[in-house]
Amino acid sequence: MKILVSDKLAEEALEVLRKEAEVDYFEPTPEELLEVIEKYDAIIVRSRTKVPADVIEKGKNLKVIGRAGVGVDNIDVKKATEKEIPVVNAPRGSTHSVAELVFGHMLSLARHLAYADRSLREGRWEKKKLKGIELQEKTLGIIGFGRIGQEVWKLAQVFGMKCIAYDPYAPVELIKEKKAEPGTLEDVLKNSDFITIHALLTDETRHMISDAQFEMMKDTAYIINCARGGIIDEGALYTALKEKKIAGAALDVFETEPPGKSRLFEFDNIVFTPHLGASTKEGQIRAGITSAEQVLKVLKGEKPDFIVNKEVLEQKWP
Ligand code: NAD
Question: Is the model's pLDDT at 275 over the cut of 90?
């Protein structure tokens, strides 16, 4: 079994692979990838390497494509499905990492941490101006109650927060069982002190938070997006901050990444991180090991646990 690992992968994951297969670990250019791909039974990527249709077409021996993470925007899944090649990933690897980043942002907003740091470095001592709020007893609105949404709620309970969760596809019983309160989007927008987005980016969720939704929020509310850029309409967020319709925001993801010189940089009450949600040592080790295990399972003819193209799962493991 010959596996190409074409993006940086945790050493722990490479060890898992090397126990059972021959592993080549280098970062090819798109042209190099096209040249070498037919030598390999499997390829494992993160987000740097693109696996387009022509690479899959040329990969005559390709039996599985692994993604050490969740999103598969860089893989032509349709082509892989056509060729009956499973695309496997590691959907839980970064769940906790993203949830902790949400709390980093939430505390930063509540206590003005990013601004306080800037102001102190610039020689100011703005103790009076920077009075914050506690998270305790505040209402957290969670939009998208999947893996990350639920993990955020688990952590929020330690802070003594209350929660309203909106997820049209999550069973109400599941939300109740997790001791959160199920609500509509409007309930979340009108009643939350902190709103955090953990839905997928789809046609339905693109710009789901726009002018009308900001209008419904408390003027003391904070909104955090560590899911995908585009769910919040950045133009509407600009207006909401300009007109003080909300107290502040935090963004880990942007409509265009990197965002260049965003107009949003003019506000002090917004905190930014450059898509760092999954970027922790532990998260990347977990994602690397899981994807390595999934790829090895497929190569040994076993049914993988995490597959993106479910059609292939049904074809190969009916
Ligand atoms: P998940 O699939 O477990 O959960 C997503 C939830 O969104 C599901 O429960 C789904 O029912 C819900 N949903 C779908 N449409 C919705 C709608 N219209 N309104 C409300 N909810 C809706 O996914 P996850 O692993 O929890 O990931 C959540 C988000 O975080 C995704 O957008 C993912 O891309 C993103 N993410 C970001 C980072 C980062 O680095 N910032 C890392 C990992 C994941």
Answer: yes
